[in-house]
Amino acid sequence: PMDVMEPNGRKELVALLVNMAYCEEDQLGYNPTIRLYEDGSVKDIDVYDQESRETHTYQCIEPIILATRNFGRHTRCFLCVDCRDKSGEKKVVVKDAWAYATREGDGNNTVDVRDEVVIMQKIRDKLAGNKELEGKCATLVHGGVVQIIKGDIVEEDNTDTAFGMLLPPSLLSEKHEFRAHRRMAMTPDCVPLQNVDHIDQLIVAAADIMNVHTAIAKTCNILHRDISVNNMLITKLPENKVRGVLIDFDCAKDISKVDCKTRPERTGTYPYMSINNLLMSNVKRTQLDDWESLIYVLCWLGTTGVNPADEERYDRAERREINKWQGTEPEDVAISKRDKLSTLSNFANDILAKFLKLPGYSQLRLLIRDLYKTLFFNESYSLLFHGTRAVDESLFIEEELSDEETSSPDSPVDQDEEQDDDADCAPFKKRADHAQDIADDLLKVLLKEREKALERIRKRYEKEMEAPF
Fold it and tell me: Under DSSP, is residue 398 helix (H, G, I), strand (E, B) or coil?
């Protein structure tokens, strides 16, 4: 420590300041792979491609998503153009994030089964040539862990290399959080979901996104696991049309490689997390968790507004119930959701009735009702599959017990019988066993409404074209 009350301490402080003045930017903590203008805005960004082992430089046009917190993945997205593209027409979205990773090998080779770059490579290759899904999912162009060059040494940018000189080895052990700084260039270029002009565009975007979500689950065995407002973008098309784009596979997992004996982890954003996810129950995660998240996304937008213009019209008092989904304790959020979704009456009165009283929101309300009924009260399955709480199955079993077979209060209990800590998640477990069939039912509901929304968009556009200038 420097004691500035002593001559030597003051001398050391002056020496420190002088040395800092001569430091290169990377020595001061600046990332040399992203360069800024004098006003602090991003100028250009380097993206390392782990397939070709080449670095590509992109010029930033504008930020799309900025990190608002100093914790978490610190995800940022920028609309960019390849510096080698003289026309400036081939736009990409560059994503920059500090994702969870796994230490492997010599510590300078970040390999992770949840590596977003690897997952997106698989999706790109598996869905190649599918015209119906083209442009509805972020497609990887280049990507990998950011490479930091220090003289002749090249290091991966991760928490070990960032803090290696500051922290003792004991604090860089497997027990502590390890993250890798990944950067990816993706197409198509798109804008946040709240850029929709009206409800019909939102419905079309949601249908596009869940259509490609289903295809990825079926074809690639990959579950997204983080359906949220920020991960649902749109591309504006002619004639007032839009196309939904699913992004951000940071939390995605190849379910063909998941250890079924491992208790599922909690991933996502509290307001949009499924009840199972919030409770960290032992029920396997399926497409249905992401469909449940979609319902929460649509409910949130229905209450607060689908775009900035509508947001100015909402009544803060109407957000009282849905605001509980922003709680700090996941168990409390789960309790609130479980209560509000326990019956159609609760859901309609406490959530759907609070939607904005603006044009189009009635269509959104009806769509969400149908999705809710298909997921939680699907008529193709028995009552044991329904709702958010377990039902006593013995109530539905017809049997006649003799006096000898009837259990008494003193009857011995089989000690080997495994007790289910998540007994109240029984309907979720039963639905999970039929996840694909129920997901297909949900997609049919959404695609049917998409066609209606497209027809309304067409009529609205024709009317606008007929109107005198």
Answer: coil
